[in-house]
Design goal:
Order of helices and strands: HEEHEEH
Largest sheet: 4 strands, antiparallel
Number of strands: 4
Strand content: 15-25%
Number of helices: 3
Structural class: alpha+beta
Distance between the termini: 59 Å
Oligomer: single chain
């Protein structure tokens, strides 16, 4: 039985692992690279397109959902141009009473508040469950 050579027939084509960026490139900004850039959309009033570098679906979806809770935001949507690059594009349209940038800043502040509350509640429940678990065995588990 002949064992196939994994290198045979590849020629000069790079393998899939060579196309994947280094892990640190997924979250560290390059020199001169900005975290967020804004571009005003001139076709639609009160609309801006924000590009977030070194971020992914996690932040994009949280911001989109939080922005849609605002009564001043008419549209909010995001897309990831390519799955290998940590970047997403967020489009925000407001009713004109506040700018898309103001709506984004407010959504970020609201998310920080919400995540702080979630962290406190989770920690409180975790500590309570640890105390209940220690009380159930009469403290013999640690000896």
């Amino acid at each position: 039985m002949r064992i196939p050579n994994p290198e045979a027939g590849r020629g000069d084509r790079p393998c899939a692992e060579e196309n994947v960026p280094n892990r640190f490139e997924l979250f560290l900004l390059g020199e001169g690279e900005k975290k967020v850039t804004e571009e005003t959309d001139t076709r639609i009033p009160s609309t801006s397109v924000f590009t977030f570098n070194k971020e992914d679906h996690t932040l994009g979806n949280m911001l989109r959902a939080r922005l849609l809770q605002s009564p001043h935001v008419l549209f909010s949507g995001y897309k990831v141009p390519h799955p290998l690059f940590s970047k997403f594009i967020l489009r925000i349209q407001t009713d004109g009473t506040m700018t898309p940038r103001q709506a984004l800043v407010q959504a970020c502040k609201d998310l920080v508040t919400d995540l702080g509350l979630l962290s406190r509640e989770f920690t409180k429940e975790w500590e309570l469950r640890k105390m209940v678990g220690e009380g159930a065995d009469g403290g013999l588990n640690g000896a």
